[in-house]
């Protein structure tokens, strides 16, 4: 089975220091960077966060965007908590940064911890990751057919996901609610993307939902068929696949994962602006945009205030959904 994310991991791991010259114009005033920058991924190698961080490193290295090494550091454990604790306690000098997404909010909403993004300095929004509803090829003509099947056979089918209580689970609940079938089937959390896709291949579940990069390669190879995506607009690499909204299923959030860059509290605003400018150059580079298009990411750069604003708004929505769906 072709695995786009696996191939990307292998190519990204063949890296050396990312050297070059950051043309931000403020280095003389802030001194950043005068040494290597550690970019912390709060999960183990191989998942969405790790792969996309290595996409950033590859763009930095290939386009010579930084004069010091840009080093990916995986600090896994405690549902991202180990990495969060290390970064929040670091000196506010811009040399230890966190690559983290909307799970900040869902973990807080579900009681994993009682603190989140508000404890960090928001630096930049990078991109959004849509979700994809998928099944075996030819099993359903479209998403509507599967929804009609659920309606006419209540209680007899399941909806597969990778985990319980995370962003993908919340997106699944939103879709089922919008389709009016939330009480007609059971959501099954398989504990990871691999077990989930295995269950669908075995016919245990007839439909699944996952982050688009996880299944995009399998769709393109013909192993799975993506029937719809959660994004507000169609994915450029999937021009024939409709969005949930196009099919009439309006959901409060079109993405379950907004990826941002976060620093320790108390960072100097001038330094924050310089680092944000650097990441803007990265995600708008030809290298990163090509990788993003291949993997179904929507580049959406904003500065720190935009990142904070988006997360504050998402937190209000997600807290309400967790309460509405009884997931707390």
UniProtKB/TrEMBL annotation:
Keyword Lipid metabolism: no
UniProt superkingdom: Bacteria
Keywords: Signal
Keyword Signal listed: yes
CDD domains: PBP2_Bug_TTT (cd07012)
Position of the signal peptide: 1-23
Family under the similarity heading: Belongs to the UPF0065 (bug) family.
UniProt-listed PANTHER family: BLR1237 PROTEIN (PTHR42928:SF5), TRICARBOXYLATE-BINDING PROTEIN (PTHR42928)
Protein name: Tripartite tricarboxylate transporter substrate binding protein
Source taxonomy: Bacteria, Pseudomonadati, Spirochaetota, Spirochaetia, Spirochaetales
